[in-house]
Amino acid sequence: MHVAARPQPVTEHAPSTAAIYSQFCASCHDDGQYGAPVRGNIEDWDRFPRDRRQLLELAIAGNKAMIPRGGCADCSDEQLLELIEFVIPQSWAEQ
Ligand code: HEC
User: Fold this and answer.
1) 31-77: per-residue pLDDT in tens?
2) Domain segments of the chain: what residues?
3) What angle do CA 64, 90, 93 make, to 5 degrees?
4) Mutate which of 48, 51, 66, 83 for ligand 1 pocket (most atoms within 8 A of beta carbon)
5) Ligand 1 cavity residues, CB under 6 Å
6) 51 near 43, Cβ under 8 Å?
7) Which of 1.20.120.450, 2.120.10.30, 1.10.760.10, 2.30.30.280 would CATH assign to domain 17-89?
8) Ligand 1 pocket check: which of 29, 30, 34, 78 to mutate, most ligand atoms within 8 Å of Cβ?
9) What is the pLDDT of residues 25-39, one digit of tens each?
10) Reported pTM
């Protein structure tokens, strides 16, 4: 018996990491506002640990102008980890 193909439900995609970054993080991390480490800038990131778990803990706790979770209160830890990959230098990529 033929089963008619049903139209795909329009699923709402979770906002991309880049979109969350633009909304919540770019105002400080694009140009180093309030002393924030500039996205991808190796010298700026030198004073931070490379360990992703440590970075996550720091980001969750916040420090100075870096408000807890970077201001994205609804971001999950997983989303924060993706955002962290997005802001740190690319050369820090894990093998
Ligand atoms: C109001 C400005 C501001 C916003 C918005 C902001 N940051 Fe930050 N961020 C900072 C500053 C300043 C530091 C440096 C803190 C320090 O000296 O320890 C920082 C540091 C960090 C660090 C290094 C670890 C830490 O917390 O110290 C990470 C990772 C980070 N930010 C990620 C993010 C992400 C992801 C977002 C968006 C969800 C975000 N930030 C939004 C200002 C900001």
Assistant:
1) 999 999 999 999 999 999 999 999 999 999 999 999 999 999 999 99
2) 17-89
3) 100
4) 66
5) 24-25, 27-29, 33-37, 48, 55, 58-59, 63-66, 70-72, 83-84, 87
6) no
7) 1.10.760.10
8) 29
9) 999 999 999 999 999
10) 0.89
